From TrEMBL:
This is TRAP transporter small permease protein. Residues 1-23 are annotated as: Disordered. Belongs to the TRAP transporter small permease family. GO terms for molecular function: transmembrane transporter activity. One of its GO terms (biological process) is C4-dicarboxylate transport. The keyword Membrane applies. The complex comprises the extracytoplasmic solute receptor protein and the two transmembrane proteins. It is a multi-pass membrane protein. GO terms for cellular component: plasma membrane. Its main location: membrane. Part of the tripartite ATP-independent periplasmic (TRAP) transport system. The lineage of its organism: Bacteria, Pseudomonadati, Pseudomonadota, Betaproteobacteria, Burkholderiales. InterPro entries: DctQ, TRAP_DctQ.
């Protein structure tokens, strides 16, 4: 049996790929994608004061965690106070950063019922949710205020600082959440709908 070799003709690199073939992304296309993203103007108007404060607190926490890791595993002489302060920074990030979620309506919500309700009952129920949320956050702020008065000047464990700073951060977070909740409630009332009724209207909502 005689075998004959067949010569495969060279393919033109600029020719379009055959139909059905997978598309291979070139380096030029990837570079163009990054260039197009860099050309977009930077808009920081959607960020509020608590956003910047939370970001700064987050980076302080990151630095403390790095110091804890470096001193423990590299220098074999751990700084115990870094772990405690990093924990307290995380508390501040959670409570103060939560006000950003209230402002942007990004907390977990269940809107299944609103898909089957008429506009009138849905509007009433959504307004009730806004009012109850605001009342709950205000009540939580009042509870933290009372707790600060009860605890008094409790010191931290590894450093001679007052632990009330942590409680004040939580109080600030609840106060900010209460204020933002009032703003969201008023805005929803003016718009005639909330994210529960029309979630698609908030998909690109940046402020």
């Amino acid at each position: 049996m005689e075998l004959r070799s067949q010569t495969v003709p060279p393919q033109d690199p600029e020719a379009p790929p055959p139909e059905g073939a997978p598309h291979m992304t070139s380096v030029e296309e990837i570079v163009h994608t990054f260039e197009a993203a860099d050309a977009q103007p930077v808009d920081l108007s959607g960020y509020a004061a608590e956003d910047w404060f939370t970001m700064g607190l987050f980076w302080v926490m990151t630095l403390l965690v790095f110091m804890q890791f470096f001193t423990r595993y590299v220098m074999n002489d751990s700084l115990a106070w870094t772990e405690e302060l990093a924990t307290y920074c995380l508390i501040g990030v959670v409570f103060i950063g939560a006000s950003m979620c209230v402002r942007k309506s990004r907390h977990i919500q269940v809107d299944l019922l609103y898909r089957y309700l008429p506009h009138g009952p849905a509007r009433v129920l959504s307004t009730l949710v806004d009012v109850l949320r605001t009342a709950f956050l205000g009540y939580a702020a009042w509870l933290v205020w009372k707790y600060i008065g009860i605890v008094g000047d409790e010191p931290m464990t590894t450093i001679e600082w007052n632990k009330n700073y942590v409680y004040w951060a939580a109080l600030l977070g609840f106060v900010l959440m209460s204020g933002r909740s009032v703003q969201v409630t008023w805005q929803n009332w003016r718009n005639g709908y909330s994210i529960l009724e029309r979630p698609e209207a908030f998909e690109s909502f940046d402020d």
